[in-house]
Amino acid sequence: MTIPILSVVGKSNSGKTTLLEKIIFDLTGRGYRVATIKHNQHGFNIDHEGKDSYRHKKAGAHITVVSSPHQLALIQDVDHDHSFEEIRNKFIHGADIILTEGFKVNDYPKIEVFRSELKRELISKKEDGLIAVAADVKLDVDVPCLDLNHPKAIADFIEINFLK
123 exposed, middle or buried (CB, 10 Å; 0-12, 13-18, 19+)? Predict the structure, then answer.
């Protein structure tokens, strides 16, 4: 069975990461194995100067794996921005669902986080894959409007639509 992918999207500072933390906590508490993909348009560096793995990459290694009894990290040079499907197929195994954050335009179902205090418009529409909005106010939209302050209800929505 293919692992389902659900994107949590929204404008900067709308609370995507905070909501995801709560959803992940709730779903894992129900026994689900949750994987996440965080997309960063600007790049990132988990390998720091002076560390052995950094030195390996600097010397020319195409792939470096850092392994311990509790964690494993892969640092690999890539020639393109990988799609969620590519990441799922190459790297994610044994998960029940993949929740993504930070890649607003994609072909997967989306829950958009909306905060009224930011005074911004929604970035997604139903035709973009929007399946729900998690908001701090009731919105008149053509998808379910879930209460942002009740992450358990949002986790229920995800469980019913993606995990059952």
Answer: middle
Q: Which domains does the chain have, with CATH numbers?
A: 5-45+81-163 (3.40.50.300)
Nearest to 106 by CA among 8, 11, 34: 8
Nearest residue to 114 (alpha-carbon basis) of 62, 154, 163: 154
- What span, in angstroms and rounded, lies between the C-alpha atoms of 153 and 151? 5
The predicted model scores a pTM of 0.88
Per-residue pLDDT of the chain (164 residues; tens, 9 = 90+): 799 999 999 998 999 999 999 999 999 999 999 999 987 665 556 767 887 888 888 888 888 888 889 988 888 888 998 999 999 999 999 999 999 997 788 899 999 999 999 888 999 999 999 999 999 999 999 999 999 999 999 999 999 999 98
Q: Where are the alpha helices (DSSP H) in 44-83?
A: 52-59
* List of E strands, the chain: 5-9, 34-38, 63-67, 72-76, 97-101, 110-114, 130-135, 145-147
